[in-house]
């Protein structure tokens, strides 16, 4: 029988102490009014000062070696910090891509010069990165990218258009996947390369793509014959596909894939607990008074909480495998498919159970619900759509 998910790696003992410190920090930030919990905070909660405060505590670049400005700690330590921040809805978007994806990628494929240039800033929470993968006609079919990298003296010239590029308008760097050579026969995955392009650059035009609310989180990025010197190629020319897909295992399995709506769930549980307590008090005073949470509502809540817990175990299993140097592509795909669907189901449960309507400008549950509804269409798309991920799983099961 095929084992789809690796065994769960227990968190190290010292993780408990680390978790306590992160919780204390978050409580202090909340008490000082430095942030209000948000759904999807890893995509929409851009707060550079918050990122720098995390960096100062050694909670960014945790797995980057000390020699490059990081903490040299384990991926599981990093997991503890990120899950606490996400569960609290803390504003982690500014450093998110750099810390999660770019740092491991630079460590794996970067030159010494590239590591020294970018890793210390990432660990301090001062260097932000955008991912230039998707294009107007190449999202799921990433091997179809048409951005062209032409050989010129001393480097490469990039021309093309990227789309849905999160945070490019604030980023210091964009990693660009481009076609640098012809496909190898019918293998379109050959001939792709990754390039590091510092921002801003006069040859890079960044245009906002706004949400219905007017919020600006992602962009269209037009590369107008951008010169990239040889020393800013990431990894080997022609190895872009292999590098990008290895990065996706980091991108697909983290706690952000099931915690985007956790602040809403947390708020709902608190509201229902208050409702139940009030009903119990009233029932004690007035026998036969109105009831609290119904058995059906309690069961719906219990089911969703149990599933969050299961997803966490699966996600931890993938984190443990990544920490061992494995490439658990199938398990990561499963976590993302199941986790992002769960994020949406949290919204459905909140809509059914909450005694409140969604209202964007209100604090507490109405505001959290409104934001979750607005951001939810992206949950199952970003990082590879769920349909594509099910294809990955089906292939592993020998079904296609
Ligand atoms: C919030 C958000 C942030 C993002 N941030 C970034 C970013 O920073 N950088 C970046 O490069 N990209 C980013 N993206 C883009 C994201 O990676 C793409 O949207 C995603 O890969 C899907 O590509 P697409 O939009 O072109 O859809 P398409 O590939 O056109 O797919 C459209 C629909 O067709 C289905 N479909 C396509 N092919 C198949 C198939 N073979 N079998 C079955 N169904 C199929 C898909 O599942 C989907 O439902 C972001 C997207 C979102 C929503």
Average pLDDT across residues? 94
Termini separation (Å)? 17 Å
Q: Spell out which ligands are present.
A: flavin-adenine dinucleotide
User: Could you give the count of β-strands?
Assistant: 8
For this structure, the quaternary state is single chain
Main sheet record: 4 strands, mixed
In what order do the strands lie side by side in the largest sheet?
A: 1-4-5-8
- pLDDT under 50 segments (min length 5)? none
Order of helices and strands: HHHHHHEEEEEEEEHHHHHH
* CA gyration radius, whole angstroms: 22 Å
Helix content: 40-55%
What characteristic shape results from the CA principal axes? globular
Structural class: alpha+beta
- β content, as a range? 5-15%
Provide a count of the helices.
12
Verbal overview:
With 400 residues, this protein is α+β, with helices and mostly antiparallel strands. The chain contains twelve helices and eight strands. A four-stranded mixed beta sheet has the order 1-4-5-8, with helices on one face. A four-stranded antiparallel beta sheet has the order 2-3-7-6, with no helix packed on it. Helix 1 (15-31) runs parallel beside helix 4 and helix 9 (295-323) packs antiparallel against helix 10 (329-353). It starts with 14 loop residues before the first helix and ends with a helix. The mean pLDDT is 94. Flavin-adenine dinucleotide (FAD) is lined by residues 43, 131-134, 139-140, 164-166, 218, 378, 381-382, 384-385, 387-388.
């Amino acid at each position: 029988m095929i084992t789809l998910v690796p065994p769960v790696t227990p968190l190290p003992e010292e993780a408990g102490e680390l978790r306590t410190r992160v919780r204390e920090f978050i409580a202090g930030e909340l008490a000082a009014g430095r942030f209000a919990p948000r759904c999807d905070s890893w995509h929409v909660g851009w707060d550079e000062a918050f990122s720098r405060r995390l960096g100062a505590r050694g909670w960014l670049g945790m797995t980057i070696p000390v020699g490059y400005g990081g903490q040299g700690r384990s991926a599981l330590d990093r997991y503890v910090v990120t899950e606490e921040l996400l569960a609290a809805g803390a504003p982690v978007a500014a450093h998110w891509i750099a810390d999660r994806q770019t740092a491991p990628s630079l460590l794996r494929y970067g030159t010494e010069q590239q590591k020294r240039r970018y890793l210390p800033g990432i660990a301090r929470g001062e260097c932000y990165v955008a991912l230039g993968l998707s294009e107007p006609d190449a999202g799921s079919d990433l091997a179809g990218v048409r951005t062209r990298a032409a050989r010129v003296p001393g480097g490469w010239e990039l021309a093309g258009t990227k789309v849905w590029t999160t945070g490019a308008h604030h980023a210091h760097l964009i990693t660009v996947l481009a076609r640098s050579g012809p496909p190898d026969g019918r293998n379109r995955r050959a001939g792709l390369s990754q390039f590091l392009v510092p921002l801003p650059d006069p040859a890079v035009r960044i245009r906002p793509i706004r949400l219905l609310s007017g919020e600006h989180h992602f962009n269209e990025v037009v590369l107008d014959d951008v010169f990239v010197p040889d020393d800013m190629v990431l990894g080997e020319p022609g190895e872009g596909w292999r590098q990008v897909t290895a990065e996706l295992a980091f991108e697909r399995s983290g706690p952000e894939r099931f915690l985007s709506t956790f602040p809403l769930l947390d708020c709902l549980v608190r509201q229902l607990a208050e409702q139940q307590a009030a009903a119990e008090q009233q029932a004690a005073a007035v026998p036969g008074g109105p009831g609290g949470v119904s058995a059906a509502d309690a069961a719906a809540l219990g089911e969703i909480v149990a599933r969050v817990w299961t997803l966490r175990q699966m996600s931890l299993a993938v984190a443990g495998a990544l920490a061992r140097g494995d490439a658990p592509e199938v398990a990561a795909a499963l976590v993302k498919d199941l986790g992002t669907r769960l994020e949406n189901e949290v919204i459905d449960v909140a809509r059914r159970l909450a005694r409140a309507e969604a209202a964007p400008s209100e604090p507490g549950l109405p505001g959290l619900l409104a934001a979750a509804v607005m951001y939810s269409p992206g949950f199952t798309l970003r990082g590879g759509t769920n349909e594509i991920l099910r294809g990955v799983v089906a292939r592993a099961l020998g079904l296609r």
